[in-house]
Amino acid sequence: MNGMNESGSPGETMPESGPGAAMPARGTDAAESARESSEAAPEPERYSRQVRFAPIGRAGQEKLGNSRVLIVGMGALGSAIAQHLARVGVGRIAFVDRDVVELSNLQRQQLCDEEDARQMLPKAEAAARKLARINSEIELAPLVGDVTPRNAEALLAGVDLVLDGTDNIATRLLISDVCFKRGVPFVYGGAIASRGMSAVFVPGRTCCLRCLIGRPEATGESCETVGVLGMTADVTASLQAVEALKWLSGNRDAVQGTMITFDLWDRRFRELPLPPPDPACPVCSRRRFPALEEDAEDAVVLCGRNMVQVRTEGTFDLDVWAERLAPFARIERNAFLLRASLAEGETLVLFPDGRVLVRGTGDPGRARSLVARYIGA
Predict the structure, then answer these.
(1) What does pTM read for this prediction?
(2) Under CATH, to which class is 21-293 assigned?
């Protein structure tokens, strides 16, 4: 199951000490005004076809407008989920992603384009700009950064639902652990090649992701090695979004207690009931949350990419580092990051929160060595 993957808060203010930097929430005033006048207003034209769908109606639409969700990862899954939830009128959408738009993303990631890649925009920022044009009445809370044991609980504070757009099993298990600790449903999804899967894990009602799959070994499959169809991610994200719509609109009995898997190329679908909680699962049986007890790794190979993320202590002043690295590298920068192309062939991408993406190697040792040589961390 860990091979199924693809690729980024809540609370009024993101913690300063956590990885990443929160950007200002978008559309806050409009969203608050719309909620205040919802009772007196006629059926809004924007949501009229959705309101006429009997299971939602006006009451369900008002619930959507008062809902708060977090999407972790803004790649193919996360971006498709986000545009669905923005269009249906979810009141506050927070999302977090650690990566930057590249040309190879455009085949499947709906909220980024060629100009975003040219500008080296973080995926969270590119998504926020598009979503604000889709629905200016909702609140958007983008975060360029990572989800780690240090900041995961703060990111989930105050949300009604968490949706999975991640690209690795370690982050998924972390999200699942925190969701079950805080009693927040977790809408899981994964896509690779032409295969996808999705399930909703609800604390007190279903098993968790950890007791379903444990901590499996890597399969060797990734989007880099076997590819992924954009349509596979779209179908998976739609399955996730419709279950979120059910939960947030008050149709919680309609949420499926099953795992659905499919192969879009062969047009095969299969649905299996989720098992009960595993008596040996530390989360479901003993209220222990292993992912929160682990230290975040300082160097992480990004899934299916010839790239390693290295975390350093402290933060980066991009102006200062542009000057320091200029004698050794070709420098490009924007408001969100600094890119230093080295003579050795690798590229260092520095973020203000202290993260460095080392492009051109999948070896954590090599990545740490380059960061130590040029950054001294």
Answers:
(1) 0.81
(2) alpha beta
